[in-house]
Design a protein that fits this description.
The protein is built from 12 helices and no strands. The protein is mainly α and about 190 residues long. It folds into 3 domains: about 70 residues; about 30 residues, no CATH class; about 35 residues, no CATH class. Helix 3 packs across helix 4 and helix 7 packs antiparallel against helix 8. The longest helix is centred in the middle third of the chain and has 16 residues.
Length: about 190
């Protein structure tokens, strides 16, 4: 999975320069540092991801006093305080959305973003949600929950016994229209044709 370095990542890195008492690092090096620290890239991979034409320049920077100070300070700070914020989660979910391999993965990322940012009404996604909990027990049983599969296998009589107040709401069955019995002999019908 490819790591996306955001503007916030670079701003975070720049906020550390005064604490480290170092001068600003060129933007390409900043991106490479973030790839190196957050993406688990080697120094050469981070340099390539940041667009270095000569990746050894970044390797030399990492080995320098300034590079070592930046890397070790960020590693110590990141271990001490894990920086998980709403913004970082949003960034991760957006990254997941863009890197999703299927529509289902994209939909899941969108749903999570909506939940996290409070875009859904409490208890639903904007529409009317209906939730049915079946906690009735069968006749002769007490406190036994009935599973959906068991409900599907039950006869109409068993279902009605669980909810007798519903029986009054049902329409009486309509009789099947019966045809007049055939009084002619089958042989005579065939011979007429």
């Amino acid at each position: 999975m490819a790591l996306v370095i955001t503007k916030k990542d670079v701003e975070y890195l720049r906020s550390l320069y005064p604490q480290l008492d170092i001068e600003d690092v060129p933007p390409q090096y900043e991106k490479a540092i973030m790839y190196f620290l957050r993406g688990g890239y080697t120094a050469l991979e981070a340099a390539r991801a940041a667009g270095f034409s000569n990746p050894n320049l970044f390797r030399q920077f990492i080995d320098s006093d300034v590079g070592e100070a930046v890397v070790s300070y960020i590693r110590q700070r990141e271990f001490k305080e894990i920086r998980v914020t709403r913004e970082s989660l949003t960034d991760m979910l957006l990254e997941s959305y863009y890197l999703a391999g299927s529509a289902a993965e994209k939909i899941m990322a969108v749903k999570e973003l909506g939940k996290m940012h409070g875009l859904y009404a409490q208890g639903g996604g904007g529409g009317t949600a209906v939730q049915v909990n079946v906690t009735n027990s069968l006749p002769g049983e007490t406190g036994v929950e009935v599973s959906q599969k068991r409900l599907q296998r039950m006869s109409d009589e068993q279902l009605l016994s669980m909810a007798p107040h519903l029986a009054a709401l049902l329409e009486p069955p309509t009789p099947v229209r019966q045809r007049a019995p055939i009084t002619q002999d089958v042989d005579s019908i065939v011979s007429e044709q």
